[in-house]
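Sequence in, structure out. First:
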Amino acid sequence: MRLLHHAFEAAAARLPAKTALVAGARRVTYAELAQRVAALAALLQADGVEPGDRVVLLLESDIEYAVALHAVLVIGAVVVPLGVTTKADKLAFVIDDTEARVLLADERLAAAWQGVEARCPSLRRVRSAAQFELAAPPARPVRRIDQDLAALIYTSGSTGQPKGVMLTHLNMVSAWNAVQAYIGYAESDVIGLALPPTFSYGLYNLLMGLGLGATVTLERAAFPIKLAEALERERVTVFPGVPTLYGALLDLPQLGRFDHGAIRLATNAAAALPTRHLERLRQAWPQARLFSMYGLTECKRVSYLPPEEVDRRPGSVGRGMPNQEHWLADEQGRRLPHGQTGELVVRGSHVMRGYWRRPEETERRLRPGPQEGERVLHTGDLFRTDADGYLYFVARTDDIIKTRGEKVAPREVEDVIHRMTDVTGCAVVGVPDDAMGQAVKAFVTLKMGSMLQPREIIRFCLAHLESHMAPKTVEIVDELPKTESGKVRHAALRER
């Protein structure tokens, strides 16, 4: 039996003197990190945390995050990670929803957590990162199995309230093994993690890197120039990114002056890379093998596009990863042949147990599968497949625009707008319209100093798209609203 934290423990025993984490000027070895994990594990037990209890993490992407993550797992508790932009009301909601016993918090985020103990009856203690190494008796060993919960990761709910995705040790280890089988991270790698480890993509890169004995550099991506410098300075070999992060790097005029020749693997998830981004990335890092991938919190990963297929199938997120089955289904739930468009359905041991205390939402997403007694994940994402079964993302079912009696997938319009050289980002949504039901609207960000006008963008779209797909209006904005994992928040734009 293998639990999620066992790989890190083995790496620390095997490579005690090797650098495990780099965070700015701070560096810790595997031995030092393991010692800090043990100290916090003991402290949490002294606080009364028992196996199965929930512990909320509100921490910056720093060494203390890795310490907290592994310490919670070591004592058999459940990790509940929250992003650093979480506000007080959402924090209190999650603590109440999970009946969390302890909050591990960063002093720099005090505005969100100060006073939370008075609002949340279940909470026994708030521990700041500065208290992680206080003296306590050694942690007691606990017994857990791979069916036990490892994490509750909160994601947006259809009702407006966030919902916790229940992931067992088996779910997360299964996903880890499947990803590692095709991506091939190595002990010698230096993983440049500019993604927040509070969300699935960044979280797994942190867990996998430390579980394999690699070095993980925690980089804050607020300033692309600083990130470019760090990739060169640390000789990063693996870079996981999302389209917004790659876009920020590629827009650096001086990017070509940096030596990023050590990067051997670059991965992309959250959303497919626009074709223009893909071409520019291949020019900037010609030596890097690029994996385009698709996944969601409810099962971590579904598909990947092998690097040798990137030029042949631009826009595709590949086919299924090992040890899973997937297919497309129509509105009646029937399997569709290749070449059709439908909802993606996923089957495997990496599929979540369900949504925490949300039975109705769980029933909507987890439905009976082909084997007696099993349930499979209906993702709510529309894809099309080509004749060979490669997947192409179309839209979230909630994001499809219905205009003039036709259906428009935002991604198709966004891809066209991204071809314009002055465009740095765009998002397309449907807005109410008395005549058309919904009208297509594009929000666009531009390169600094660009004089590109909305009417020029509309004309470009009319020249490359059917007329009902072209935006009726275009709004130039300074930035697009994004989640902490880098996805554009289309719902926020629709509300706007």
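Second:
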Amino acid sequence: MAGRGTGPDFVEALARGLDVLTCFDRDSPTMTLSEVAAAAGLARPTARRLLLTLEELGYVRASGGAFALTPKVLTLGMAYVGALGLWDIARPHLEALVARTGESSSMAQLDGSDIVYVARVSVPKIITLRVEVGTRFPAVQTSQGKVLLAALSPDELAATLAEASRAGLPPFIGRSPERLRDELTEVRARGWALADEELAPGVRSVAVPVRDGTGAVRAAMNVTVHAAETSTDRLLAEHLPLLQRTAGDVSAEWALWQTRPHVELRRTSDGGSAIA
């Protein structure tokens, strides 16, 4: 993976450190030095130095000759979510929506050609996919992804679709590029998107946009059901109106939150606080 930077300010060492962090996943929560080096495409001495640095910083722990991430890694992603203020605003609304529908609800944002889940409230139902905060799926196969793709300009959409998915799923060949663009035009016009067993058998969902204070689509919110339990007609007739109302409430509160003045408190020498 070395040497991929194109700009004069690209820091290869930082990129390699991030490569090491992203080697760990659900299937490989613990890895040896050799496994990390192979997964990140690094020489063993380089991988060792990076792992020891990450261990000293608290992001990695070593035990019995193997390495694993620590909970401190969560701060890297949660800092982004917290900076948006979106999760704190959305959480009670998602919980209320799930209580009314009896179905799981999530919020995702676009990252390249994938969506990444940034919030989720789930119900204990058996589905074919495991979804949690940080889960990544190809955008074109999901209702949330279609909503987010539909909000892009033609040039942005073309560039996004040209990127390879990092979700680790087989390539999706369910529709032509022309058909996808037609579907996204329809999604943009009606304000919601449906994914009917496109991501996995039995998984059906509907999604709507979440907007910031400028009206720009910054996230998407969905309701996911089991196809054998909930028909498309019921999903659209009963759950979609509740979802639209919830997303509208979240967007409105987020817009108000963004207009509030924000100050940073710093700790003083006497143990008190002061405005920075």
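Remark: The chain has a mean pLDDT of 85.
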